[in-house]
Design goal:
Radius of gyration of chain B: 22 Å
Oligomer: heterodimer
Strand order of the largest sheet of chain B: 1-2
Number of strands of chain B: 2
Strand content of chain A: under 5%
Helix content of chain B: over 70%
Radius of gyration of chain A: 25 Å
Number of helices of chain B: 23
Shape of chain A: flat
Largest sheet of chain A: none
Structural class of chain B: mainly alpha
Number of helices of chain A: 8
Largest sheet of chain B: 2 strands, antiparallel
Largest interface: A-B, 74 and 69 residues
Chain lengths: 184, 500
């Protein structure tokens, strides 16, 4: 096997060609956008001062490396029908989509932070996401509580990380709200 | 003597001591949990360390970095699962020893080998960083540009069998580094008119996404890998002294680790493979390798633990990180306006000696902790991996959201988390992205300065002796790696042809 073919010889899951094509399109598309998305220096300071130089070099390298990678994948049969079939790619896309679910969980965590504060939102996030991934025994709720306390101690009390005021704390008596806002 | 005393007074500060113990102990535990690893922990802690003074922050991060390689040997030996990727070879001989009822002996062999590797590496750092910094004091922009280029080239060629993929992701990282407001002429580059992109692509969301979130996604989607803690059998202190019965393997492997650690981008993997191969070739019992050979275990552990301190040589002397973890550490320097390089040795000798002493003390703390807490670490390392995934995600909030208090950074981290997850699934390296992001601005600024002084004449890079020397090292390393790969392929072809 040549050095070039060895580049893509490892057994992989379907979809590697899609990833390589994504980088190729990114490189080629970026190169095409250079006139629009960068500028030229106003005077005649030399080619090496041009703002477009670094994007040109990096996108050129990205395009060239990804093109060679695509060719190596093609030579190793990664574009073969069985690896690029709808079923094979759909299976892989489904796994990517499942990871995207955690994206939504995380955004919800951030939104909750402004509503109920750091500690309560952290407990809810850890406990509910734990339930979602199958941690259903009571011990995991206790573990979520323990982790929340540890993180509160470390970040809010120890490192005094500031978080925006929570709406919930504003509804409580002022002294309680200020205390919770400061430490929780 | 003054420098040692100044270093001791730095190390004696209570916050540095707390960082030393916390970093070392948590590093061991993190390393012992398969699927976690120091990159995840350092990425998560990085934003919090910006509020600390540089020595405290670096002591904490280096404690995690060093401790993790020690801890990673525990599951590699006990359950045949490396705690961190660099402990793969430890499974070859460590696990057969466990099966033979010698788990404690294997663990103590790994600990003492790691300790020797760690100490040798710190001694080399102390001996080499200052002279290299003295040489670097003669460096101009051309040399720094070439040093950055050398780091990038070596990072790519060190990914054997994945060079094209590494070049692709390095270029992606370099491109990300070029996004934002270009300061020389106030030109916007690839901002698409978005205000939030004018400051460029920040490092923290990228490292949190690529290392922490992507790993959390992996753990959340996989079945739980943890089982019952294995029983520790055999005699514990037997292996501690046994490592010294193989001084050639112990010290040559440490030497390999140091050498590979200094070379940017090469790191633990090549160090342990070279050490293991050499140990097997020079052993009186080569047939025992892979079946529980103490020399195999020593070679693997001494080599990978010799890398962390050695990796600091180019960072401290030149300001050039050679891999992702030191790239993250460079950001700690930058936040505090401490510029690593020749000036640091002249202006902050107490910081340098404090760092050296903390590295030495760290290895001692880790070894003592391991000697007395192995049973506890084994129990902790069997935590449900899905729960670890949930906790990693929760921990990243501080780094992503509280750095800017807007949704942009967390979303950016999530996008990089997805990118990292997909790249990991396809065995495409993510480390070059971070190195591209860190080294890109250094390379661009130095390239411009160098060419500015030479009126655009590229010959400056070969006319200046140090710059030409760096180019020569780069060329030799590339040719050497290419020849070694060619030889290996030829051997494989010959072996395949010889098979019936």
């Amino acid at each position: 096997m040549s050095a070039f073919d060895e580049e893509t010889a490892q057994e992989g899951v379907p979809g590697r060609a899609v990833v390589a094509l994504f980088f190729l399109v990114l490189g080629a598309g970026g190169l095409a956008l250079i006139p629009d998305q960068t500028g030229a220096s106003p005077g005649d300071e030399g080619w090496f001062t041009q703002p477009w130089l670094m994007p040109l070099l990096t996108l050129g390298l990205l395009g060239a490396a990804s093109l060679l990678y695509v060719v190596a994948l093609w030579r190793n049969g990664e574009f073969a029908r069985e690896k690029m079939s709808g079923a094979a790619l759909a299976g892989e896309a489904w796994i990517w989509l499942k990871s995207a679910e955690f994206f939504a969980w995380y955004v919800a965590y951030i939104l909750l932070l402004g509503l109920i504060g750091y500690s309560f939102s952290t407990f809810l996030f850890v406990a509910c996401l734990g339930l979602r991934v199958g941690l259903r025994q009571p011990k995991w709720l206790l573990a979520a509580l323990g982790i929340t306390l540890a993180m509160t101690l470390l970040f809010r009390l120890g490192l005094e990380i500031w978080v925006p005021p929570a709406d919930l704390y504003g509804l409580l008596p002022k002294s309680v709200g200020v205390f919770l806002q400061r430490y929780f | 003597m003054d420098a040692i005393l100044a270093g001791l007074s730095q190390l004696g500060q209570w916050h540095v001591l707390i960082a030393l113990f916390a970093g070392a102990i948590s590093g061991v535990i993190i390393g012992a949990i398969p699927g976690l690893g120091p990159a995840v922990a350092i990425a998560v802690l990085l934003p919090a360390t910006y509020a600390m003074d540089p020595l405290t922050a670096l002591t904490l991060l280096l404690g995690i970095y060093s401790g993790a390689w020690y801890g990673g040997a525990i599951p590699a030996i006990l359950i045949n699962t490396p705690g961190t990727p660099v402990n793969v070879l430890t499974t070859y001989d460590g696990y057969p020893m466990t099966l033979a009822g010698q788990a404690r002996r294997a663990l103590s062999l790994a600990y003492s080998s790691s300790f020797v590797g760690g100490i040798v590496s710190v001694v080399v750092l102390i001996a080499m960083a200052q002279p290299l910094a003295d040489i670097a004091s003669n460096f101009g922009s051309a040399e720094f540009a070439m040093a950055a280029l050398m780091a990038m080239v070596l990072v790519v060629v060190a990914h054997r069998g994945r060079v094209l993929a590494a070049a692709m992701t390095l270029a992606f990282g370099l491109f990300l580094a070029s996004v934002g407001l270009e300061t020389a002429f106030n030109t916007q580059r690839f901002t698409f008119g978005q205000v939030w992109l004018q400051g460029g692509v920040p490092l923290i969301p990228v490292v949190l996404g690529l290392f922490a979130m992507s790993q959390a996604f992996v753990l959340l989607l996989e079945d739980d890998q943890a089982g019952e803690p294995p029983r520790l059998t055999g005699r514990f202190f037997q292996g501690l002294a046994e490592a010294f019965r193989y001084p050639k393997t112990l010290f040559s492997s440490s030497g390999f680790g140091v050498f590979m650690g200094i070379l940017p981008g090469v790191g633990e993997f090549l160090a342990q493979f070279f050490s293991y191969t050499l140990a097997q070739k020079t052993s009186k019992t080569p047939d025992l390798f892979g079946k529980g050979a103490p020399e195999g275990l020593i070679a693997s552990e001494a080599a990978n633990n010799a890398v962390p301190a050695a990796a600091l040589v180019p960072l401290l002397a030149l300001g050039i990180p050679g891999e992702a973890l030191t790239a993250m550490m460079l950001s700690v320097f930058m936040v505090h306006n401490v510029i690593p390089g020749p000036e640091l040795f002249a202006t902050r000798p107490e910081f340098i000696s404090g760092l050296y002493l903390s590295l030495l003390a760290m290895n001692v703390v880790i070894l003592i902790f391991l000697l007395f807490a192995t049973r506890l670490i084994v129990a902790l390392s069997r935590v449900n991996t899905k729960f670890i995934g949930v906790v990693i995600l929760a921990l990243t909030l501080v780094g992503t959201y509280t750095a800017s208090y807007n949704i942009v950074h967390p979303l950016m981290a999530l996008v990089f988390g997805l990118i990292g997850f997909i790249l990991k699934r396809h065995n495409i390296p993510v480390v070059p992205i971070v190195l591209g992001l860190v080294l890109g601005p250094i390379f661009e600024a130095r390239l411009r300065q160098a060419l500015g002084t030479a009126a655009g004449d590229m010959a400056i890079f070969v006319e200046r002796p140090y710059s030409a020397g760096l180019l020569a090292i780069m060329a030799i390393a590339m040719i050497g790696i290419a020849l070694a790969n060619r030889q290996r392929r030829r051997r494989e072809r010959t072996a395949a042809a010889g098979d019936p």
